[in-house]
Amino acid sequence: MITFESVTKRYPGGTVAVDDLNLEIPDGQTMVLVGPSGCGKTTTLRMINRLIDPSEGRILLDGRDVAQTKAAQLRRGIGYVIQQSGLFPHRTIEDNIATVPLLNGWPKAKARIRARELMDLVGLEQAMARRYPYQLSGGQQQRVGVARALAADPPVLLMDEPFSAVDPIVRASLQDELIRLQAELHKTVVLVTHDVEEAIKVGDQVAVFYPHGKIAQIDTPEHLLGSPADDYVENFLGFDRGIRRLGFFPATRLDLETENVLSEDATIEQARQAAKRAGESWVLVTDEHRRPRGWAALSELETRDGQETLRGLTLAPYGHTFRVGQDSLRAALDATILSPTGLAVGVDDQGAVLGITSYERLRAAIQAAEQTADGQSARPS
To answer: Model confidence over 321-371: pLDDT tens digits?
Structure first.
């Protein structure tokens, strides 16, 4: 969709912001440009919609040189989201969203209908349509900014540190919203950030910049974390990249233990035997719907009448669960670390227990996942 061909941006005085950049941004994917302040990533973004013109080289949008299109016309066909939303303070929310359709000659009624459709899409209540930006929270304003960028249904969406001005909780929510929208809309998204965690979370491809707009590495987030190109990329990614990489391996890879999962109606003797067969010091007790109730210690089971049921025992808390079908090995590891027993409970989407994992089972799953990933990355693209 977007191609940079030997693009350089040189400012008066000799400062080179971007130097001989060659970059291809695939259609329908999210490309994140990430790097330290002053590395040229924002300049790269703004050259796409000609807020900045390159000094040398060409930028092609769907095969056409953007320099051959009038700047105003070009920008109306490209969505653009900036920090702190950049809303017009004197216009209502629906009129802010309808800005580009109105500029394109849409009737006001049609543009407002489109605005309200987009409010639903980005998770804004219809009651906000007639409010003004100052009456909304920072996160709500940023959602309006995204809706405005999507109003004319552009094929390309440019996002310049769009979530950096909101608090971490709202930021995470907006990132999740972007992932959801992209799964539905399949736009070509170019997003600039200095936050490598954000890049890894939302990007299909991540381009790490050296200073002066030089590319250090372009890769999928998983391969970027697993195989940084050099010390610069490795240091930029941070020391815990191995843990973060587990977020790309599904928990379905785990071989879960089911032997020591028992209903609360099971007997103490049955629980003792199950724990010994599993080689564990704990059994997980579930209710009639197979939802977890808590852990029973083998040491206590050894002191009780074997004919009693597990229903009357005082149980240790089971910690938090992970969803086998939706979560990653990182989530399973987190649940294991926080479990009072060193064992974690995997559940289905209804909360019913599917089995138990341990550090040993996690280690085996991680090793198998890494071997598979390394084998795939070694294949020619």
So the answer is: 999 999 999 999 999 999 999 999 999 999 999 999 999 999 999 998 888
Same domain? 268 vs 341: yes
Among residues 248, 267, 300, the one where a domain terminates is: 248
Coil, strand, or helix at residue 190?
strand
Together in a domain, 181 and 315 = no
Paired residues of 7 in beta bridges:
21
CA distance 222 to 241: 10
Let me know if residue 63 belongs to a domain: yes
CA gap 32, 221 in Å, rounded: 10
What's the CA angle centered on 376, arms 371 and 380, to 5 degrees? 145
Cβ contact 349:323 at 8 Å: yes
Asked if 209 and 33 count as a contact pair (C-beta separation under 8 A), the reply is yes
pLDDT in tens, 319-331: 899 999 999 999 9
Q: CA torsion sign, 68 to 40 to 166 to 334?
A: positive
3-state helix, strand, coil in the chain (%, to 5): 40, 25, 35
End-of-domain residue from the set 208, 231, 248: 248
